[in-house]
Specification:
This protein has 205 residues and is of the alpha+beta class. It has seven helices and ten strands.
Length: 205
């Protein structure tokens, strides 16, 4: 009798998972995006599915300052940007882009994406402890800069032509897709990094 009910339970689990999978496929990209934000986690494959369904972004709509947040996909960089004080990005015009804005809670400042520093940061596991955040911000201030360190162009990625931020001195392209008029999903395509890194930008000005 126990075996019978165990079999029924397993069949119910299979049916439930199939129903859930069906409704996830029926959801819009926006609905999936909102679910991931609430749950604070997803997988790379699921994030790519959402990314692929979203509309492309044109250069004009990208202009302005944007506040960033993370889109967790079990990437080894998850949590790092928040820990080190990353604020977002600013797009002045297609040839004048500030890719790294940081904040010390009082003032927003631009940081130079120095290739040596960035490569070291990407190659090690940065301790994600809140008590270290003031130290990271202080270190970032040593790299303060005012001139542009990136540009934006329309490039084709995963079958769509969309606005892409190209670093001046790093093999990194940040490709953007539109969630709504004031929200973007970004994908960091870093040469040599097998798993793409996702983030969210919300219009700040």
């Amino acid at each position: 009798m126990i075996g019978f009910w165990a079999k029924i339970e397993n069949e119910l689990i299979v049916v439930t998972e199939a129903i859930c999978s069906y409704w996830v496929r029926k959801m819009s990209a926006l609905e999936k995006f909102e679910i991931v934000l609430r749950q604070c986690k997803t997988t790379t494959d699921e994030a790519l599915d959402i990314f692929d369904e979203l509309d492309a972004v044109d250069l004009d709509s990208l202009m302005g300052r944007w506040k960033g947040s993370e889109f967790y996909t079990h990437h080894r960089m998850d949590g790092v940007l928040e820990t080190v004080g990353w604020y977002g990005k600013e797009f002045v015009n297609p040839d004048c882009v500030h890719p790294l804005l940081f904040s010390d809670d009082n003032k927003i400042f631009k940081v130079d994406p120095n290739p040596t520093v960035m490569n070291v940061g990407f190659s090690i596991q940065i301790p994600q402890k809140k008590m270290l955040k003031p130290l990271y911000i202080a270190m970032s201030k040593l790299l303060k800069v005012e001139d542009s360190k990136a540009r934006v162009r329309m490039t084709e990625y995963r079958g769509k032509l969309s606005a892409t931020m190209i670093y001046d001195y790093l093999p990194i392209n940040d490709v953007f897709r539109k969630v709504d008029e004031n929200t973007l999903l970004g994908l960091m395509d870093f040469k040599g990094m097998e798993q793409p890194f996702f983030f969210v930008l919300r219009r700040d000005s």
